[in-house]
Design a protein that fits this description.
Order of helices and strands: EHEHEHHHEEHHHEEEEEEEE
Shape: globular
Structural class: alpha/beta
CATH class: Alpha Beta
Largest sheet: 5 strands, mixed
Mean pLDDT: 96
CATH architecture: 4-Layer Sandwich
Number of domains: 1
Radius of gyration: 17 Å
CATH superfamily: Metallo-dependent phosphatases
Distance between the termini: 35 Å
Strand content: 15-25%
């Protein structure tokens, strides 16, 4: 069995369909998606339908845009300029799709690899991150998920502390796993920067470059940072290659790191602000 990890799709159905035709898929193979299945691209609802059609063969972790969909649907935030969520929000099967989204994991660990949308804070081991993700997943799947969504947005606390409780704890887990790009050597997250490696502000590093990162040496697949592009590191593989912004859509096979890419959305259709 092979596992193919696919970068941020963001509602770009046609590139995903083409990518699936170039993958040498066998019946038993699995597809892992690094999150942000929806939003900004033209076909969010159809993309979710396609991924759901694979059943247990597909594993999806939640990204920041997927969580944004849930918040908009519950009225805890508003649609932003450039959002393309109406195809789901106005769909006849809206509740089915939203419930399915809400029950997806925020981190997946199997086959000797870990998949998360954005990153892992330097204080976390992979084993600890798995347990922390389960905490947030339990809240999102509970009858009280709306209460958490109403308080989920925010940039504080900026740093992990094992003593964090309730909403502050869960918010920090969500921010680390779905929004993190750069942080200080001590693990303080900075959310405003979305540029390339060359422009990282003084005093901050890519999360995967922090010395002493406790997940170092563990195989991690992630997305979220389109300006970073393909990052084929020794232990961290960043697969958001900007399909939405005119870059390719990328998949990587876990066992041998084989790379598969197809052309993404036309640049003329990709003039929105990156988030």
């Amino acid at each position: 069995m092979s596992v193919y990890v696919i970068g941020d799709v963001q509602g770009c159905l046609e590139p995903l369909e083409r990518l699936l035709t170039v993958l040498p898929l066998k019946r038993e193979d699995e597809l892992w998606f690094v999150g942000d299945l929806v939003n900004r691209g033209p076909h969010s609802r159809e993309t979710v339908h396609l991924v759901r059609s694979f059943g247990a063969r597909a594993t999806v972790v939640l990204g920041n845009h997927d969580l944004h969909l849930l918040c908009v649907a519950e009225g805890t935030t508003h649609e932003r300029q450039g959002d393309t969520l109406k195809s789901i929000l106005e769909a006849d099967d809206r509740q089915t799709l939203l419930r399915w989204m809400r029950h997806q994991p925020i981190l997946h660990h199997a086959q000797g690899a870990t998949m998360v949308h954005a990153g892992l804070l330097p204080q976390w081991t992979v084993d600890q991150a798995v347990l922390l993700a389960r905490e947030v997943e339990a809240v999102l799947r509970s009858d009280h998920y709306r209460d958490f969504l109403a308080l989920m947005y925010g940039n504080t606390p900026t740093r992990w502390d094992d003593g964090l409780q309730q909403v502050e704890r869960w918010r920090t887990i969500v921010n680390g796993m779905t929004r993190l790009r750069i942080c200080s050597p001590e693990g303080d997250m900075e959310f405003g920067y979305k540029g390339s490696l060359q422009g990282v502000p003084s005093g901050y590093l890519p999360w995967f470059a922090v010395a002493g990162r406790r997940s170092r040496g563990q195989c991690v697949f992630c997305g979220h940072w389109s300006a970073l592009g393909l990052h084929a590191g020794t232990d961290v593989q960043g697969l958001d290659t900007g399909c939405l912004w005119g870059g390719p859509l990328t998949a990587m096979r876990i066992e041998d790191r084989a790379l598969f890419q197809v052309e993404g959305m036309p640049r003329s259709a990709s003039s929105r602000v990156r988030v």
